[in-house]
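Action item from last week, closing it out:
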Amino acid sequence: MRKLLMKASGTARLFGHASSRADKSCAWRRVAAIAGLVVLGMTVTSAGAQTDAVKEKPRLYRFESYWTFPPTHWGDVDKDNATSSQKALAPALADGTLLGYGDDENLVRSREAYTHSNWWLANSTADVLKVLDAFEKGGASSSSRLIGSTQHWTQKYYSPFYNWKAGSWKGAYGKRWVFMLRRGIDPDDAMRALASFYVPLFESLLADGTIVEYEIDREEVFGYSADSAGQVLMSYVTPTADGSAKVGKAFTAAYEKSPPMFALIALAKAGAFTNDDALLTETVRVNAIYK
């Protein structure tokens, strides 16, 4: 393990001083290769204590509907989220079909990215589909939202690593990292590698009120590219605008206390990417309720 870490460290230094794009690409590939051996699919000795403490929970299922709207429709989306969507979601939360639901507005996005999303959480696929059926029977599929959107797609995820505080939050803030995995990398191994380091941090931040929810998810169905094994997502919700800064400080402090673990997590991320652009970071405004 020590030899692998020393080799990884040397490769990282080379990458940091690479003078050309070709040099950086070559160094990046070496980092990725080492990462796959060191972290994903292996038991990381230096992270043993944290790994033992992170227990997988019963699967949580997340259904998310993504939308892209021109700015002229954003006000209509807010109104729809506060009225029409509640007709299907609120009763499902009350009767136990759902564990939580909400909507996001993507605050920092590229031209191709979604502007808004709606999501809900459940204990089973059957409960996820029950709510989807309620939307369709209520006429959501022919609503003005579909007519006004320029793009629309849906995705279903599951997670064994999650927690939240019961309650309702309006105008909260969320951050999400989306990792596109290399072909041959098991998404479950990628989730566990992230969870071994980040779940204890998230639990501490949840306990002191800095965040109110976190998840580490993977796509349940993936079919976008022959070069990728799918996506793994890591996210949290914080009730205030300065919450992200507090989370960042907590991450930095944890990295400083455990440099080997930070190196391993960094390598895990590098080894899981398909290329330099395979990590997407999203900042969203969140309205959410958790049971």
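Closing note: The longest helix spans residues 187-207.
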